[in-house]
Design brief:
Length: 175
């Protein structure tokens, strides 16, 4: 396994909906290892979704130490598979960034408290209750699985500005 190249928006893999995981097998474990290796390579990423490394599957990783969010965090780099929100309440406006939109950030309105049902690596159904930073991160990553990024929550003007910067970034980095 090795770190994969991060897809930079605009990119067709990032903007199409991903397929649910149906087999909890070695291929899934290999995908999760690639996501972990890529997160380690990229440094301090709080989350990474499979489409960001070019795989349209409903899997993402989140790594939020509990001490960074008043005790509400993940168990290291945790895999979330086929996520579904069963509760969303409250509102918060916070700034989001993304490895697929390097050097940029923008304000997004999210639910402040969520309960999300998901599958773990063994195919067991689990639930996570999240607030604030962790809740925002779960919503950002689930957006990736639906082909959405934080730029899609911006005004047309801001989105277009960021798009032009990213096209320039890709030319300069030959992606
Ligand atoms: Zn992202």
């Amino acid at each position: 396994m090795s770190p994969k190249e991060i897809r930079i928006w605009p990119d067709s893999t990032l903007t199409k909906p991903s397929e649910p995981i149906t087999h909890f097998d070695a291929a899934l474990r290999a995908l999760v290892r690639d996501l972990i290796d890529t997160m380690n390579h990229e440094g301090n990423a709080a989350g990474l979704a499979a489409p960001q490394i070019g795989v349209n599957k409903r899997v993402f990783m989140v790594d939020i130490p509990p001490e960074d969010n008043n005790g509400n965090g993940t168990n290291g780099k945790q895999a979330f598979i086929n996520p579904v929100f069963i509760k969303k309440e409250g509102k918060m406006e916070w700034q989001e960034a993304c490895l697929s939109v390097p050097g940029e950030a923008g304000y997004v309105t999210r639910a402040r408290h969520v309960v999300m049902r998901y599958m773990d690596l063994d195919g067991n159904q689990q639930e996570i209750d999240a607030v604030d930073y962790l809740a925002g991160c779960l919503q950002h990553e689930t957006d990736h699985l639906d082909g959405k990024l934080w730029v899609d929550h911006q005004s047309r003007l801001k989105r277009e500005l960021v798009r032009k910067k990213m096209l320039k970034f890709k030319t300069e980095h030959k992606r």
